[in-house]
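Hello again,

I reread your note about wanting to compare the complex against the isolated chains. To keep things tidy I'm splitting this into two emails, and this first one only covers the full assembly. Below are the input lines as submitted, including protein chains and any nucleic acid or small-molecule components. They are followed by the predicted structure of everything together. The single-chain runs will come separately.
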Amino acid sequence: DAMVIQNPRYQVTQFGKPVTLSCSQTLNHNVMYWYQQKSSQAPKLLFHYYDKDFNNEADTPDNFQSRRPNTSFCFLDIRSPGLGDAAMYLCATSRVRGVSYNEQFFGPGTRLTVL
Amino acid sequence: DQQVKQNSPSLSVQEGRISILNCDYTNSMFDYFLWYKKYPAEGPTFLISISSIKDKNEDGRFTVFLNKSAKHLSLHIVPSQPGDSAVYFCAASASGSARQLTFGSGTQLTVLP
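Full-complex prediction:
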C-alpha cells in the first residue's frame, strides 16, 4: 500500500543533543511537509519542500532544519533540542500542481521527548 | 492569531444520533477546506473536503457544509457510531501556494454506545 512512513515512532533525546527524524513516502508526491503538534493544539507547519524548493515558515525557529535528498525521503533535524521542542512531529505529503485541490497524507508521527 | 478556530474542544453524542462539529475561519483567501480524523498515536487521516465553489459535499455518513458569508463550516456525521470517537481537525488552504494547511485545534468527539 502507498503510504507515508515515519521513523522512529518514539524518540528520546537529551537537552541540547542533536536529533534527526525521518520520513519516507511511496506516493511519489512532489510536496512534503513537516508539522509540529503539541498536546491539545493544532498541528503547526514548520516548513515544506515543493519539489526541491525549501520553504520555511516565518516563525519556525532556526534550531529546526530539513533535508530532502530525493523525492521519497525528507528529514527533520533539530540541532539543539530544548524542553519546549518536546512534541509530536508529523510528516505529510501531497501532489500539488497549479491550483489543484488535493488533500495531504500524513504519517503516524514521531513523539519526541527531551530529557 | 488563529485563522481557523474550533471552539468546542469536546463533544459527546449518543450512538445513532447526529454529530455536528463546527469550524470558523477568518482568512478570506482560503478556498479549500478539509476535515481530518485522528486517533491516539496515529497521524491525521483525511475524511472529507470541500472547495469554496460548493456549499455542500457528502460522502456516506459524512457531510460538510460551507457558509462562505459567515466563514463557517460544519461536519455532520449521521448516524454516529462508537468507532467515530476521535479528534476531528478542521483545516484550510489557499491557492497560489503549496497548499499548506492551517489547522484548527481539534474537537474530541465521543460517541456513547
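For quick reference: Chain A has a mean pLDDT of 92.

B.
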